[in-house]
Amino acid sequence: MTTPTDRTKPRIGWLGTGRMGSAMVQRLLAAGYEVAVHNRTRAKAESLREYGATVAGSMAELAHRDVVFTMVAADAALTEVTVAEGGLLRQTAAPGILVDCSTVSQKVALQIRAEAAKAGAPMLAAPVSGNPSAVRAGTAAFVVSGPPQAYEIVNPLLTAIAGAAAYVGEGEEARLVKIAHNLFLGAVIQSLAEITVLAEKGGVRRSDFLAFINASVLGSVFTRYKTPALTHLDFTPTFTPQLLRKDFELGLSAARESGVSMPVAALVHQLVQASVQAQGQDGPVDFAVLLAEVARASGLLLEAEKQDAGEAGG
Question: Which of 7, 80, 97, 249 is most buried, judged by most C-beta within 10 A?
Fold first, then answer.
């Protein structure tokens, strides 16, 4: 179902229509924005036609847009779509504002920001907290940094996509905030997996244990969101161990550069790396699979529970 576009609104371009990018584009389309999308794998962009997006056949088509968002997985992908030969910033025109929502290194981000400035395009770093389900529900959150004037223009777009946007500085501060956020995310899921296995080995059902955690002072949006996956052993990917490993590598690199001691993060990085290696050539899974890794190391055979946490039971 499409929504009529408002011609007074800025024309949007979007690079990167994977799971997150696609959900974010759909939010903009539902809010009445005109969005042209492009993806290296064209089929992923084509699927957005039914929601009202147009599919750009080339980077040149996006370069004339008022605001262009990028949402890709890693440094190499962002470099390819922006500053490599044929990239967005190598066209004869440049977008009015470039907004990068990817979680990438500050080194690459600074290089691309410099190239954007040469092309005359102010650049915002706007990584997002949340997964596709959170985006669709309007409960994701942006952390943003870059020129304040550009932020004022783009803020209505960000709030159309997510429930909140926090502005933290005029440079690359948002990158560091998002990386720190994901270090915490990894430490939390690893700790939650460990204590859940401890409780289950002691005779407590996972659903009962997680219901208590969620009702306690330690309960959070994240623990409640992950409870069904941990209870039912549903590891359909929303965020993979591979992406989490990448973010830990970025975070630990930033810590070394800043002289910050992060022993917990270093240990969790090793555990995430072990999880990635254990998966081998299997298909993508969610990072909640760390529960299975802890159980395996603890000699516990996990079984999916049909009952949700908090439901009455024995």
Answer: 97
User: Which of 118, 109, 110, 129 is CA-nearest to residue 20?
Assistant: 129
* Pairing assessment for the beta strands 128-129 and 141-145 based on DSSP bridges: antiparallel
Tokens, residue 28: 């903009």
Average pLDDT over residues 41-61: 93
Is the whole-model pTM more than 0.90?
no
Q: Which domains, and CATH codes, for the chain?
A: 12-171 (3.40.50.720), 176-297 (1.10.1040.10)
For CA atoms 221, 223, 224, 229, the dihedral sign is: positive
Confirm if 150 and 232 have CB atoms less than 8 A apart.
no
State the amino acid at position 246 in one-letter form.
K
What gap in Å lies between CA 299 and CA 297, rounded to an integer?
Answer: 6
CA distance 128 to 158: 10
Please list the alpha-helical segments (H only) found in the chain: 19-30, 42-46, 59-63, 75-82, 106-119, 132-137, 148-161, 173-201, 206-215, 221-232, 241-258, 263-279, 290-297
Count Cβ neighbours within 10 Å for each residue of 95-124 and write b for 16 or more, e otherwise: bbbbbbbbbbbbebbebbbebbeebebbbb
Q: Which two tokens stand for residue 195?
A: 């204590």
For residue 268, how many C-alpha atoms fall within 13 Å in the half-sphere facing its CB? 28
6 contact partners, CB below 8 Å, separation of at least 6 = 32, 33
Render pLDDT for 189-237 as a digit per residue (tens, 0 to 9): 999 999 999 999 999 999 999 999 999 999 999 999 999 999 999 999 9
Q: Which of 185, 313, 294 is nearest to 233 (CA)?
A: 294
DSSP 308: P
Q: Which residues contact 222 (CB under 8 A, 6 or more apart)?
A: 185, 188
The answer to whether 232 and 289 have CB atoms below 8 angstroms apart is no
